[in-house]
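W.,

You were right to be curious about this one. When I first looked at the sequence I had no strong expectations either way, so I just let the prediction run and decided to look at it fresh. Below is the sequence, 528 residues in total, followed by the output.
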Amino acid sequence: MDNKPEKCSMCYNDYDDNQLRPRTLPCGHTFCSQCIDNAIKNGQLTCPSCHAQHTAISATQFPISYAVEAFVRKLKNIQQTQEKTVPAKKKLRSMLQEQKSSISSLITSCEEVLFQLGEYRGQLGDWKTHHLQLQDRLYALVEQNKSAMKLLELEDTSVVDMTTQGEEGKTQLQAMLGSLDTVNTPQEVDTTIDTADECSTKIKDWLEKCQELFPDVKTVHTSVKVQETIREALEMMTTETGATADPVHLGDSASNIMHKVQQIIREIHQKQLTVEDLRRMREPVKSLVEAGWVLAVKRLMEAGRVLAVKRLVEAGRVMAVQEDQDGCRSARITLQDGQLYLHPLLRQPMPAHAYTLQESEVVGMLDPSCTLAFLDLGWAGSTRGRVTIRLTPDTPLARQFVLLCTGQRGHTYHNTKLLQVGNKGQPEEWVAGGDYKSNDGEEETPLLPNFQGQYRESLRAGAVFAWYGPGGPRSAQFTITTRDRQGGYQWSRVFGDVVSGLDVVRAAVNHSDITEVTVVDCGVVLPL
């Protein structure tokens, strides 16, 4: 249908200004609104021309191709000019129809933009509500700060009063000390000693009272906790007062308003965290000790920043993202027992107020000489444990394993099942899994072009190797040995070893049906 641009290439009907308006998909192909609506299934749309996948619930989400409409109108005008014999009345009707079409097109455009403005106003309303809520919380912090300061003022007044009493008592004692050197008669001695005893008793009472009164536990506790709370809140602020926003390229002027809003938010979030923030999560305390007191204040500020990042990670608000022609995929970054984990890239909703980093930068943190990957195994509706594997990345099989644990190439071990157990109960016992494509052990596509390399051999339980050999149609499938091999030949093509969680693998082997065991999660360990 390339020689008939005025027709939809799916239904072969001429475009019009109503249900058959031309709309352009993100992949660049144009079809009428009616065909797009008919092709949408379960929120997904497959382009009939290039088979690209798009997310949509209505054809109105895609922009009208005004260029096609203008081109169609131009063709019609040319046809009308060439039809010399058309009666004048018919030409007039055609002109009127064209004007009606133009007006209808503008009305439709107005309706679409009005709808977008309505969505945008709703978002602005939500943000205003959030600002009011934050304002209330800030007022609460200010009130807490005022209460803490009032307690400190009362405590300071008490300290001043007690200081005055102590200084007066000290002066009296010093005077008495001088008097003891000048007395001569027994009567003067008795009087002076009585007066000295009285002053000493007052000072002793003063000393005891100081020990009882200070410090006031409530005052100190309230002050320190309020300071910590406010300091942590301030550390979470990533934009300085008066800072101007960096320019953001918003792309095509025909883009949806809310799409532009989301792009701005995404750009802001990507600038709020860096890989260095993750790397420094363990540095500040050590650096503070080494630096002494000269850089103490600076180091404490850095520690506050790291604490803020740590809390964001613990709250599940830090994500690694990768964008391609099909949209955005994201990977969770989690912290468990002081260890940082990168989970696989998936098409999933982003958490509210998420902070993002580029997946490529996060993966760049991996130690080139040794990589730790993990597989979480589960069955019977629950996760049973984590298997951590030390890989040797200088082998192609290990590099492919990392790609499938992180999902960088679009495929992942996530939600794959274990396939079979070999030599169950025997010294050569092993379990296999990792069919990312069909999940049934059949052929799949390797992710790397060349798998030649120097692989190890092993007799030990926990060895991870490729049963079917490097580069074959099943080379992405992995095998884990669960028992030491007793003599004979060794397991070959070994590219990793289980360092923890071998008991989880053995428990999976003993499950009644190995194909019910699933890799419920996977990823790599990020060095801090």
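Here's what jumped out at me. The chain is about 45% helix and 20% strand. And, maybe more interesting for your project: The first helix runs from residue 33 to 39.

Coffee later to discuss?

I.
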